[in-house]
């Protein structure tokens, strides 16, 4: 038993959180570039503080990030040294189409990713490409308001067309949108949407979600047409919702929370709007405007596999029950009294991963892929400059054990596991550098200083062993 022989072990990153070099190679500006670190970040990413340019009053961590743009060869060599079978990365849309609506792609941008894929090939690493990881060109936000407009579908498909054809010989695993359900929680970061006063935010978010869902189905069709070997996955931020107590009101609220997230996967994997969503959206007057043919498109082009991020479970209490909130996360959750918490207040729940895997597999019966999981922590190098991150090893070990049980004892079909951020990079939620997830330490500090040098943490050697033994030695 154990994991299948071709189990895809690896790590996952996102362009804007690691590349930097945002003014190089003919790249244009994107929503993710103008999300500042610091206290305004929350309002910007949720679409409540309009920011479409950089100003002098804020710090923008994407500008340099960890400068992967100039270090990718070294970084991928280190991934190779850990024995990665797969590297999940995302394409910065504005490297390919700087404003989003050009006819011809930017060759320099295409060249950059081609070099990345060639580098991966040297070490036998398969790329898993997220087409849009929270990425939307500012040009398209200014002209069309981001994903609130239907026109976005065509621009996105134009990008897909270029990627599928140009990288046909390098890539067969694709994800259409990172954490597609994040559009409900951080619509500017997720979909380039900011709100004007008095707008019906719910309606705009679900309309934009519909556009992304149609775009995802059409991209799936295109991927299969370009190369029948292509495998396309959806991707959502998972983590089962537990009822705070067995009080029916708590159970009901938890069920609704899960449905809010499963809605996206239901459409992408089953091919239609689930009845609970249709009914609820209609009742709230926010059912999206659809075009003739949309339902058919969704029906005919479901995804091949389901991928998700898992950091923690959620714990849901009925409104007005006065339960203490767990902090530090964009997803609302009560504080689960049975769990420990990370330095950022995120619950730590390995069994929750087994529960989540079972629930998703029961629901869809399609292969699953865990494409993000990890512990954000402050790492302090010791006197020899080494990071002994036993806390990270402990977190990952317990989660990998849980997923192993799900595979061995529950029969869940799992394609692979990519931990989040095998190399330290910028946090999406907070914009911080000091929230580190990596096996590889990057000498870049919160104030932006540092040599950018890379070094192996203790977890680097641990993960290498895990991969080498296909998860037998943990
Ligand atoms: P950071 C919140 C909740 C769940 C997943 O997050 C999230 C977020 C955003 O903070 O995003 C995913 O960096 C996302 C990654 C992100 C990672 O989780 O805030 O796909 O881009 O970096 C971890 O600690």
UniProtKB/TrEMBL annotation:
<dbReference type="GO" id="GO:0005829">
    <property type="term" value="C:cytosol"/>
</dbReference>
<dbReference type="InterPro" id="IPR001360">
    <property type="entry name" value="Glyco_hydro_1"/>
</dbReference>
<feature type="active site" description="Nucleophile">
    <location>
        <position position="372"/>
    </location>
</feature>
<comment type="similarity">
    <text>Belongs to the glycosyl hydrolase 1 family.</text>
</comment>
<keyword id="KW-0326">Glycosidase</keyword>
<keyword id="KW-0378">Hydrolase</keyword>
<dbReference type="GO" id="GO:0008422">
    <property type="term" value="F:beta-glucosidase activity"/>
</dbReference>
<protein>
    <submittedName>
        <fullName>6-phospho-beta-glucosidase</fullName>
    </submittedName>
</protein>
<dbReference type="InterPro" id="IPR033132">
    <property type="entry name" value="GH_1_N_CS"/>
</dbReference>
<dbReference type="InterPro" id="IPR017853">
    <property type="entry name" value="GH"/>
</dbReference>
<dbReference type="InterPro" id="IPR018120">
    <property type="entry name" value="Glyco_hydro_1_AS"/>
</dbReference>
<dbReference type="Pfam" id="PF00232">
    <property type="entry name" value="Glyco_hydro_1"/>
</dbReference>
<dbReference type="GO" id="GO:0016052">
    <property type="term" value="P:carbohydrate catabolic process"/>
</dbReference>
């Amino acid at each position: 038993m154990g994991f299948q022989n071709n189990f895809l072990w690896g790590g996952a990153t996102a362009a804007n959180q690691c590349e930097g070099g945002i003014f190089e190679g003919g790249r244009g500006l994107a929503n993710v570039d103008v999300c500042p670190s610091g206290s305004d970040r929350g309002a910007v990413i949720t679409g409540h503080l309009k920011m479409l340019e950089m100003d002098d009053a804020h710090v923008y961590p994407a500008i340099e990030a960890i400068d992967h743009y100039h270090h990718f060869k070294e970084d991928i060599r280190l991934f190779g040294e850990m024995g990665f079978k797969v590297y999940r990365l995302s394409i910065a849309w504005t490297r390919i189409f700087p404003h989003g609506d050009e006819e011809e792609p930017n060759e320099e941008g295409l060249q950059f990713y081609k070099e990345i894929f060639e580098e991966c090939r040297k070490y036998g690493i398969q790329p898993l490409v997220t087409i849009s990881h929270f990425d939307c060109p500012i040009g398209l936000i200014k002209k069309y308001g981001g994903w609130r407009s239907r026109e976005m579908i065509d621009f996105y498909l134009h990008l897909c067309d270029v990627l599928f054809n140009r990288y046909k010989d390098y890539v067969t695993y694709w994800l259409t949108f990172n954490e597609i359900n994040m559009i409900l929680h951080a619509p500017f970061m997720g979909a380039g949407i900011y709100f004007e006063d008095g707008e019906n935010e719910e309606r705009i978010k679900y309309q934009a979600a519909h556009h992304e869902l149609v775009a995802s189905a059409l991209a799936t069709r295109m991927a299969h047409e370009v190369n029948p070997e292509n495998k396309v996955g959806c991707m959502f931020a998972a983590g089962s919702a537990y009822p705070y107590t067995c009080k029916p009101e708590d159970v009901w609220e938890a069920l609704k929370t899960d449905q809010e997230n499963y809605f996206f996967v239901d459409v992408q994997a089953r091919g239609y709007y689930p009845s609970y969503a249709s009914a609820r959206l209609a009742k709230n007057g926010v059912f999206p405007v659809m075009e003739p043919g949309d339902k058919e498109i969704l029906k005919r082009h479901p995804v091949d596999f389901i991928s998700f991020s898992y950091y923690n479970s959620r714990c849901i209490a009925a409104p007005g029950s006065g339960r203490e909130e767990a902090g530090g996360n964009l997803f609302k959750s009560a504080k689960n009294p049975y769990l420990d918490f990370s330095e950022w207040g995120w619950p730590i729940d390995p069994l929750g991963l087994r529960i989540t895997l079972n629930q998703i597999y029961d629901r869809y019966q399609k292969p699953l892929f865990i494409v993000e999981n990890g512990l954000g922590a402050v790492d302090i190098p010791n006197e020899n400059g080494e990071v002994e991150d036993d806390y990270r090893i402990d977190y990952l070990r317990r989660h990998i054990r849980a997923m192993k049980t799900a595979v061995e004892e529950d029969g869940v079909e799992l394609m692979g596991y990519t931990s989040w951020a095998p190399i330290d990079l910028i946090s999406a939620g907070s914009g911080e550098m000091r929230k580190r997830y990596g096996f590889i330490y990057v000498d870049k500090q919160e104030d932006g200083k540092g040599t950018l040098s890379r070094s192996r943490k203790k977890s680097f050697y641990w993960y290498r062993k895990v991969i080498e033994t296909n998860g037998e030695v943990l």
